[in-house]
Amino acid sequence: MKMTRLYLSNDTSSLAAGAGRLADAWNERPEVQLIRTSSRGAFFLEPMVERDMLNGREAWFNVTPEDLPRIVGGIGGTPVTKLPFLQQQTRCTFANFGITEPLALDAYQMKGGMKGLTAAWNLSPQAIVEELHISRLRGRGGAAFPVWKKWQVAQLIEAEQKYVVANADEGDAGTYCDRMVMEGDPFRLIEGMLICARAIGATRGYIYCRYEYPAAARTMKFAIQKALEAGLLDFDDYPFDLEVVVGAGSYVCGEETALLESLEGRRGVVLAKPPYPAESGLYGKPTVVSNVLTFASIPNILAKGGAWHAALGTEGSCGTMALQLGGRVKQPGLVEVPFGLTLREVLDRFGGGMAIGSRFKAVQVGGPLGSLFPESQLDIPICYDAFANAGAILGHGGIVVYDQETDMVELARHFMAFTADESCGKCTPCRIGSVRGREILERIQSGQGTAEDLILLSDLGETMKTASLCALGGRAPYPVETAIEHFGEEFRQGAKFASRA
Amino acid sequence: MTTRDRSGLAEALEACRPLPPDGPNILKALLAVQSALGHVPPSAIPQIAQALGATEAQIAGVLSYYSDLRTQSTGRHLIRVCTGESCMANQGGRVFRAIQDHVGVAAGRTTSEGRFTLEQMSCVGNCAVSPTVMIDEDLHGRVIHSDIPSLLEHYR
Ligand SMILES: Cc1cc2nc3c(=O)[nH]c(=O)nc-3n(C[C@H](O)[C@H](O)[C@H](O)COP(=O)(O)O)c2cc1C
Ligand code: FES
Prior knowledge:
The complex is a heterodimer. By secondary structure, chain A is α/β, with parallel strands linked by helices.
């Protein structure tokens, strides 16, 4: 019997959407050979099955086990290149997604993998940093700090031990691109970290992966083992030690100083900066902490040159951004595009508008500390400067759309309660401010709020913004304040508001 | 602690002996204990402190800080419902209430016959197929509140 080779994603979200059920049903079937790949990121179509046809891959969407005869018969597939959701993207960091098997090192190399590392070996450490300078890459974890500056600081300090740490805590709700990288293209993260190690002279690396990502941690461990066996971790005169360390469920451990505390096994409490980790980080040694997506962007930069990267995107925001659509859009999924499209374009073109039965109410960009945008503000371009000018953040690229069912007072309360739960307790504005903020919003929610409460909330917000030690307290007021700014009438519903009016 | 817990604890701690020059790693040790016993019993704190050469206060401090470290054993099945914003927008709250009604306990509690423990959790990166419910190791996406009874049937 002729065997048909089918490609099925092994990504956690593909499995949660039903890919596992397909694998269980088809694994023993003699007529098919299942290849478990990463996901294309078009999650609204998952579980999605692909096969090779004369003109390349064709795909079947939202597949159930009963669809097998149709797929084997080659009936009703759609050429992957014709999918608008994918066709309109610029896949650089995510170029391999949906195509390769995550742990196949040879496939990674055949697709151009490890070319960046080879290029880095032919450059001096200074020249690597210069290439990043030219690329104008900024960190993708949230703070958008120029990557080359951090590397240069760590490079210039003399120390017998330096560290490279990948921040895989991905705490922002609504984000999942780091998880996808680790599960779907683990060698890209390893390659980026090796290039950094070479540039700063580090001999040890850690991937600090959140507890909630067991599949990512497992895949990374396998990939490290494979890289080790292939000799990729052998530097000239020493081996590079790379280890996956698992966290234990604390949002603030994504903040770099808290992360390093946690990596040393202590309570993940934020430390005052300076000193910055690049000067004095893990065990007091120079440490580059960068986001997973930042590291994953680096191999292409070294392979294609910094100028290639600088030419993508906008003046202040170069390269591509991995946007992650969630909430009530029709087409949730991963969107990699050069910076510069407007938020409206992203929602229309990729999000495909609203889910059935939903009307747009607001969109939040940048996770639980990000601002809310109403319909009238959707023409803002996706780039760091425009967002900073609007008092907003792009953060890690999470985009969550809320519909008419969303109760804005409850949402605002949820944000303050989140900060109160997750505050590390080190600074007072965040520790106490978030609790007081939550209490005020609970009062408003119970119908006992007054106009003074809104003034109090605004004063409290100012204190938190100016006096908090890190962005948890410093940004927590923004989603609340933008909710009040755009949906104020929902906050002024209680009897005590009415009696004063 | 049972005798089995005691030997599991000793074994887990043996693997976490502090290695110079980095010193003891309390979080790593507590995660190892949890993976051996399912939770970290507070009665084990003195022994953990001794094995790591740390104070009991240091151990207790780390244990209470991290929400994924648990001090009590769970029921046969652990249900965790995501409270992240994408799940919230997709009626995750309704799903949570449906589960709560069905199993009859509040978040953080275990049902009397020990079948289910119900918890809320932060985003697990499954936002694109939300709302998300995790039962033991299984992640369920696009969960609809009316499907809860049949979903839970699979976990006896
Ligand atoms: C409360 C808080 C949470 C954070 N969470 C994360 C996170 O989950 N992942 C991440 O990469 N950066 C996170 N950051 C940013 C880190 O502190 C740091 O800036 C980043 O890891 C640096 O990497 P990058 O330069 O590649 O962005 C967080 C910051 C704060 C204040
Ligand atoms: S918000 Fe629930 S999985 Fe991300």
